[in-house]
Amino acid sequence: MAWERIHGHDAIRRQFQAAFARGRLGHAYLFTGPSGVGKRLFALELAKALLCESPLTPLTACDHCSSCALVTAETHPDVHVSRKLEDKNEYTVDVIAEVCKFLQLTPTRGTRKICLLEDGDDINEQSANKFLKNLEEPYPGTTIVILSTSADAQLPTIRSRCQIVPFSPLGAEAITKILAENEITDRAKADRLVRLAGGSAGQALALSDDAVWDFRATLLQALGSPRIASAPLVEKWSEFVESAGKESPAQRARASVVLRLLADLLSQAMRLAHGGGGDGLEPMEAEKLQRFADKVGVDGLVELLEKCVEADYWIDRRVQLPLLAELVVEKISRSVA
Amino acid sequence: MKVKCQRDWLLTACQLVGVAVAARTTKPVLSCIKAIAQDDALFLMATDLEIGVRYELRGIEVKRAGAALLQPNKLISILRESSDADITLDSDENGTLVRTSTGRFNLPGGDANEFPDIPAFDDGGQYHEINAGLLRSMIKRTAFAADKTEATARWAVTGVLWEAEEKKARLVATDTRRLALTEGVADVHGGVKDAKTPSHLVPQKAVQLLERSLADDGELIRIVLKPNEAMFQTGRALIHTRLVEGRFPPYRDIIPKKPGVTLAIPTAEFLSRVRQAAIMTDDESKRVEFKFEPGKLTLNAQGGADHGSGEVTMDLPDYQGGEIDIAFNPQYLIDMLRAVESEPTLTLEMTDGQKPAVFRLGADYLYLVMPLTG
């Protein structure tokens, strides 16, 4: 499989292979782009290719040697994958200290080592300062990859020490392929997921859960009703989010999916309010959204969309999820009233 | 994998290998011991990706060759609680069944291919051998001086410099305020490194693990230093470690060539006096003033405003040199004096209160400590 499992980023792959062939591979890269477009997958494939014991062609992993197996299992001694602690908003200094320690030890299985920092947006100044010396001048054979949603989200001290590699949102074809690889082959469902995913395969897969669509029906039902009772909807919203699992990251990811669903419904309502047709909506759904759009008006819809964006921002800032549900539902309820 | 082996052998092996199991890791596979059964041997290995231990148990009844992941804590508890002479381990993809005469224990398993193997000992014809007793003493007398703060600017000094020359090995450690150097007789095979070879900086963790693994004073420890790794083969286990990157400071340049005065110091008495004087230092100053004068040494400690002060004296009947006032962090002296406590006397070389002082034990041990100034 090797690079074939990475969809939609062929140009970036070619760029790396060309740099590798010229012996001009950089020591630090900042992969930027929306979440779910394959930055992490690409970085691990790059690590695998760099460490492969019998590469098929230059910088292409064989996927069969023990080194490839260890990178896939994330237990390769020369690959360090770092992320912030689950209960923290930011990279703590001790997590960065582990990164520094890895960078100060020699590679064991060859001459290269790769360090991947997954939550690049959450490196605070204190942690960055601890890490800058290593980022600027790592030992030969070191490749550091930082994943980030945007170069602007980085401290200037980090940004200036990395080569920036922008990852674009994936096209419909790439997402459809990824969905097919995950056994989602129903054309109508796939099209709907592609439309909702906004170029993120990760979001498309998160949205593919049937429970998500059941909840979407609940949301749609609420929007189409003459009066929206806040408390029951907040309760259903919270129950649905909590059903994602006991762990906070799973619940936050689910909360983000709910907001995406809601934002999509509001966008569809906006389109209907401007006299357009619903994109992929069934007649009954379009009818409910039309009623909602008529009641709320274009300005109201804009405000609701802004509220969704604000709530999505707060999800990452660890605000209690039931409070966010309440914030959004109350706003909808007041708009209708 | 299916093996039958002696319970106490396996217990000893698991306990020894278990020290390298990653203490806190996000990778469950690294919290396991990997076992490989082949021919008449069972290989046990553990790693935290920095150091790894590989232990070989010979004379095992291997009923089915293969590999398995074993949970060390549970397995060690089972082995400890059982009183059987022999025990059977039967592993498949679902886990391991541990069979004793009175019990059956199912341990969950994992994919053994996800475990990074510890390479077998490969000296490539270039290695050196040191007597275990001597090596233990060399480690004890140097490793404490390595930097423990892991400050980013000078990672190289967090490791212990390991050098092999003709007929001797040398260990050097420093935190830039003190430096310990020890040499010992080594049987060097396959030539010595040339000047272009990078320094071999062994992480403290590996050195400490090696020290703990040295059981029998008489055995010979075989050491291989490669550009990226070091391997230590003891009678019972192979310890494998990555090295610390970077260049060790040019330590030879800072060792004073011509000291002003040289005097003999009784080790135990000096340790006792330094410890007494250190009582009155506080966390902020950590400073003891040493006044050397003919026949006598006076140690003065002055803490902060509310901390009081202390004065301790010690006779130095053989010292007839000039007066020298010098100040040290007492902990730097205590660390060294504890490591050489068994030696009756040390030689102290000084020039003045501004230049480094050097403690020596014959030609094989040197401890340099920077004085506190100001």
UniProtKB/TrEMBL annotation, chain A:
Signal peptide residues on this chain, from the entry's feature table: none
GO BP terms in the entry: DNA-templated DNA replication
Protein name: DNA polymerase III subunit delta
UniProt cross-references to SUPFAM superfamilies, sorted A to Z: P-loop containing nucleoside triphosphate hydrolases
Organism: Limnoglobus roseus
Any Pfam family the entry gives: DNA_pol3_delta2
Automatic annotation (TrEMBL), chain B:
GO cellular component: cytoplasm; DNA polymerase III complex
InterPro entries from the UniProt entry: DNA_clamp_sf (IPR046938), DNA_polIII_beta (IPR001001), DNA_polIII_beta_C (IPR022635), DNA_polIII_beta_cen (IPR022637), DNA_polIII_beta_N (IPR022634)
Keywords from the named record: Cytoplasm, DNA replication, DNA-binding, DNA-directed DNA polymerase, Nucleotidyltransferase, Transferase
Protein name as it appears in the record: Beta sliding clamp
Gene label: dnaN
DNA polymerase III beta sliding clamp C-terminal domain segment(s): 253-360
GO annotation (BP), single: DNA strand elongation involved in DNA replication
Transmembrane residue ranges: none
UniProt source species: Limnoglobus roseus
Domain DNA polymerase III beta sliding clamp N-terminal: 1-119
SUBUNIT field: Forms a ring-shaped head-to-tail homodimer around DNA.
SMART domains: POL3Bc (SM00480)
GO MF, one annotated term: DNA binding
Domain of life: Bacteria
UniProt keyword annotation of Ribonucleoprotein present: no
Membership in a protein family: Belongs to the beta sliding clamp family.
Keyword Transferase: yes
